[in-house]
């Protein structure tokens, strides 16, 4: 008898879809399993205004495979020029679900992000007033801070002061990678949640660096030491509703990843659910998978969970996924968890 697990259809609370040929190639990988996704605005140029978000949403909808039920939840890229009134209007019309904060220089296409947090105070206050969440890439960018410490330092130097100065601001700490991030979320009694990626539940920094450099495991925030991965696993599988899935699935072509200066990002849209079922089963927490993938995120965003169900079946033989997705820009490598997968979406 094969084992089955039925979940409400999952959502992805942090996703990069890009644009053009890449968008068309990667979108079906997400719509196959997910009902909604928070769409990252770090295009070139970024999605900074309601007008940009509307046009991008139309391009995503046009690229959606025929007949699929998938809703892109749009975000605005916060800059020092962002107009609080534009943000409020975009929220009131239902167009945007969150605003994204990139510290300038923190990651891919973050050059237009925030340098001086005082300059975005008005926007953050408006967001606190209207209940619009701020999605945060939580890393400092100071050259003297070690890359493995950048998340922990961000919490102390930026996130905590911003939250204290802006009561009521709802914040999602995105793609947390440290026990410090987990502890900070757990210590807060309100207005704070965190997304955890699939890959940060599976790899630590050894996977990137031992036995040769593995560019397809390089992402930002970079995976940390094993104790941090275990803290993330414990948080994700704990049932604590403040933690939910945001894959940060981030496609880059192999040419851009396998380079002297490779891009950051792991592409996990294709096999995320098989990997998560494996991880939750390993930790004796299969009964908590639905909370992480399908319930906690909507609850944070004040949305109903999806009504449609999805069934995972555990097979005796490994499930095969393509190694790469073909795009008109070149191949994109699918994240390799490094072990066989037996859970398949049926
Ligand atoms: O690894 C990452 N890739 N981290 C980010 O923050 C951005 C993303 C991308 O856009 O490629
Ligand atoms: Zn991201």
UniProtKB/TrEMBL annotation:
Membership in a protein family: Belongs to the metallo-dependent hydrolases superfamily. DHOase family. Class II DHOase subfamily.
Alphabetical keyword list: Hydrolase, Metal-binding, Pyrimidine biosynthesis, Zinc
Cofactor note: Binds 2 Zn(2+) ions per subunit.
EC number: 3.5.2.3
Organism: Roseovarius gaetbuli
Domain of life: Bacteria
Catalytic activity, reaction form: (S)-dihydroorotate + H2O = N-carbamoyl-L-aspartate + H(+)
SUPFAM superfamilies: Metallo-dependent hydrolases
Pfam family, one: Amidohydro_1
Chain sites annotated for binding Zn(2+) 2: 100, 137, 175
Annotated GO biological process: 'de novo' pyrimidine nucleobase biosynthetic process; 'de novo' UMP biosynthetic process
Pathway stated in the Swiss-Prot or TrEMBL entry: Pyrimidine metabolism; UMP biosynthesis via de novo pathway; (S)-dihydroorotate from bicarbonate: step 3/3
Catalytic residue list: 248
Broad class of enzyme this protein falls into: hydrolase
Protein name, UniProt field: Dihydroorotase
